[in-house]
What does this fold into?
Amino acid sequence: MPLTPSKRSSKSPARPMPAVSPRVAEDARRYLVGGVNSPVRAFRQVNAEPLMLIQGQGAEVVGAGGERFVDFIMGWGALVLGHNPPEVMRALKQAMADGILMGLTHPGEVELARLIADAVPSVEQVRFTTSGTEACLTAVKLARAHTRRGRIVMFDGCYHGHSESLMARKTAGLVEALEQETISIPYHDRGAFATLMQRHGHDIAAVIVEPVAANMGVVVPDAEYLARMRELTAHHGALLIFDEVVTGFRVGYGGAQGLFGVDPDLTIFGKIIGGGLPIGAVGGSSRLMQRLAPSGEVYHGGTFAGHPLSMAAGIATLKALAAHPPYDGLDQLARRFADGLLLVAAQANVPLCVNSCGSMATVFFASTPVKNYAQATLSHREQFAQWANGLRARGILVPPSPLEALFISTAHTTQHVERVIEASRQVFASFKQ
Ligand SMILES: *Cc1c(COP(=O)(O)O)cnc(C)c1O
It folds into this structure.
């Protein structure tokens, strides 16, 4: 059962469905830990069976059993142009024909770095990595070397990959000394931040933050909060790192820093800049970036750093975004999604809070606004699971966790958004009053 070709991809032939053994789910549990390679894919937070996907096209994906879904996971935000956008596919084919891996510098690395620096004024130089995790840990090392301080400040509910310093008290397997070097405080709380900086500002190497949070669900801070963070970090000589792995080229071509008019010292990118292929990047002023080897003493390197295919997909994606800025259209779709969902929820007496910023949104089953992690975790998990599983049964995929963002791409249309609203109306009607 091939996908109906969407408007964007009307020239691509319908592909035959590959055969998937019915045993594959069983084998996944046998050969992969927990059946997955990344925990959220296990669907444990919505008490459901994991789903395997075998094809994607435009805004739609196909499961291993041939079932079709409108996709709002969208590669966790990486696929801003939808699945298999023609311009990215063309660029990839050409890059593959030239050779998959060079092992030395490739002109694509220069071009993608230039595109990022042109889009984001606080960035003069870029270092590419193979994941957001690796970019975050590299930025932390750089900040420690630059300031000759040890402590890192982060915020409850923000995610910066799974490196030691940024996973303090969230995973087993860390040494206590390292855990003590990371301080986590509530997000979006100016008082807590000011107090912390007053007490410990002199030994803080860096403050790392998602300028719009996407990993406690979407939480949008006010501009004043980020501006004050900029002032206080500068005052105390700590670096300010914006983790724009999700927000970069998503909430606007210039990312969240462009939206709020606040320039960090270092920026982390990932997801969208790789056009769906593995990537991460650290960017900042040349003065700071010069600390990295071979110019400076902070080591970072990688066999696959600046991979030609990731560069090709990233360049094609950024060029498409620059040539036809989709941001107004995406905002409108997201607003329609939020308004529609709030309306059908109100009609069914289901308390709902929809947080959104540009084309990312989270539906919290909560009766009060969600402005930080503590409030996000108070949302009704059982109702979220019923909603997510109810949508899945109706051919719509949202992230299987109440603390993730869903993503709208340029391949989504008003019809896709109307479908999720109508399906939600049906699911809400089944909730116990
Ligand atoms: C996804 C994500 C990361 C980690 O990126 P990976 O490529 O998965 O390692 C870091 N920060 C934020 C904000 C993210 O959403």
User: Anything to note?
Assistant: Residues 1-13 have pLDDT under 50 and may be disordered.
